[in-house]
Protein 1
Amino acid sequence: MKSKCNVLCTHLVLLFYVSLISYLCLMPVSEINSEWLIFTHADKIVHFIFYFLFAILVFRALLVTQKTTLGTFVLLSFLIPAVYGGAIELAQEYLVTDRSAEFLDFFANLLGASLGAYLYRLYVRTQLTIFYSEQ
């Protein structure tokens, strides 16, 4: 049985994480310390990691609240971050004065979300196999 605390905590973590991504992606460029970006396109790795974790958190939130197939979880945990990443890139282009949309950022978002969703599915499936084999 899924506890209410587990469901609430999972959703709060997801909400905090989405808020953090939004803040970091929409904050003025002048406030970003980019000294640690030591090579060209290092920010793409950051985008990949952001959306890799985003997909895992979406998958987890769906897992604790929905009853459907793992395939549906994978699809939704890819699509939700992908659409959100596209919306953030559009917001950077049209709503923020010193930021601009980049296709490679969006592509890194898609790669991160797809790998996060797929790998978390493998993890969940492995855990279910272990659980049912011990019974």
Protein 2
Amino acid sequence: MNKGSLGEIAVIGDNSMVTGFRLAGVTKYFELEGEDAEKKLAELLKDASINIIIVSEKVLYKVSGRLRSHIESIAKPIVVPVPDRSGAVEEEESASLRELVKRALGFDLYKGGGS
């Protein structure tokens, strides 16, 4: 899962989330929250070997506007927000995250159809 056509995959999140992805074979994982998670996300965005960054929704929702704009303006790596063990972010908070996923994948993952 971690290498090949997908390239490198990195995960940033809480212990449960990171452990799940480690069990799935991801070797670049970071159990971080808050400012530390934001700094690591910014660092991973500059790493040419990373093609996909899976990040806790709560971490991604709290990043600075500047970093969010940067994420929205790049094609690679793809940043995929996922809920952590405490569940999904509130509906209004998740709207911009949903748009990030839709832009990255080319379709609305939550509707399951084409764009």
Protein 3
Amino acid sequence: MLKQGLELKQTQKLSPLQIQTIKLIELPVQELEQRIRKELEENPVLDEDLPGDNDEDAAPREVSLSEYKEDDSIPSYRLRSDNYNSKEERPQYSTFSVKESFTQSLQEQLGYRNLSEHQYAVASFIIGSLDDDGYLRRSLDSIVDDLSFRANVETDEEEVAQMLQVIQEFEPSGVGARDLRECLLLQIRNCRKSPEMENATKILKNHFHEFTSKHYQKIMTRMNLTETELKAAIAKILKLNPSPGGQIDDSYNDQAQQIVPDFLLEYKDGEMKLSMPRFSVPELRVNRKYADILIEAANSSEREKKEAAAFVKKKLDSAKWFVEAVKQRHNTLYSTMQAILDYQREYFIDGDETNLKPMVLKDIAEKTGFDISTISRVVNSKYIETHFGIYSLKYFFSEGLENQDGEEVSTRELKMALQECVDTEDKRKPLTDDELVEKMTEKGYKVARRTIAKYRDQLGIPKARLRKEL
């Protein structure tokens, strides 16, 4: 039996302006610049307002169409963003470089080798198969198959192995290794010969498992070494680089991704000044030609002019939403960053991490009145330049725990205290997690053993057995 009834539902539908604003808030300043350039290319109604342009014809004008007689009238709107004075000198500020030239450096070194075209293709493919840390974690037979199917290059495992040996001679030393043991041995072969280096080589070749497990007594017994000799050999090994791909020298930094801070914080005479330097973000205005089309069509009865006006109106609405979204992005980012500064004022005076209070997204959402999702979008991929360094906004957020006095302290402060305990321990008898709990308790922090294990893992601190030294 069918039943018919009414049901009232309340749904929230985002406006075009809200959608535009949400998308723009997520973008860091460089991507915002690219997005504005794209909008300028795609929307003919918009023009870039260049600084120093005093041409009267080029000046932005009011588009007043109050006399337009159709029901679907075109609203007046003056398109110009007011959050930057184009006559002001654009500020200069620092950038933060992220190196990306590891593969490029290897390809450049490959070009200096006397290889046939076929050998070069094989070696180049191997370079492209390396992980970011410089290791080759794929089997040689899988590379042979991929060369055949993807690059139409016929080869075999023997030739791939030969080309891998060529790559393993490149800088940084250790690149192209299949595992940590091979990586360290590749580096040792380039070191100056000495008794310590000979012992280090034998340890890596014959006693690698005992070395990584820190079973030092077994190594001394099997190699007939004194404790002093073992210490000297291990010291040589510890100076080697376990991740050659992550240690490219500046000479290889031909291409770098520049991260431009969205915020600039200046601290002078006890006062903090927050600004948002605009890096090549153009001002927007209505194109004079299209404004004339709208005005001319206002009282016209010609169909073509009406159609042209309808087209311009559509583009004008899109431009209006976009420019307003740019302004709202600016206001949202500024309000959020100012709330973070107010919340962490003591920290931003000198960058002392011990003054960094526990802070989560909800805290800033409550101060600004924005949704937590909005704060999350603001924080993502944004940076601030301070008088003590450049930081990601995510850095300032951390959860908190109570100390023995009932005061809330940040997880970053707890981690610093934990790191201090490990740094000052007796390396001959490292502290277990239970002993670290006792040490933290002595410092006034109430931390469970599982929390110690979690923080230790996040800090990259090995278990007690693996921290043991002679």
Protein 4
Amino acid sequence: MTDSDTGSKIHIDADWKAQAQAEKEKLAQQAKSSEGQGPGSAKSGPGGLPPATFESLVSTMATQALFSLGAIPDPRTGQRIVHLDLARHHIDMLNVIEEKTKGNLTDEESKMITTTTYELRSRYIQAASGARGAM
């Protein structure tokens, strides 16, 4: 037998509505006060990682390119390793992102990716020229 068969209806009174509204406001206040505080907050992703944003994507790819250009030492060994093919791949991937997102970026995002790819290309050319001169 269901509630509709017995004719019973759910009765929601004003007190219940007030209590539900108070709980909702309390949760919203707690969420607002915890923003930006520690791992798992609204300003970080799971495990304290930065949020998944366009800026994070570009930064990640740029870091990988810099690592491959020897600009960033290996954290385990402290050695700088130059792997020009891998650096070029990461720079090319940033170029793909730039081309595929053209017209869909804010002015800040567009400037960020344009500047980043330009600087990485310049570093790549310097590293590649230095590698040829060392031969």
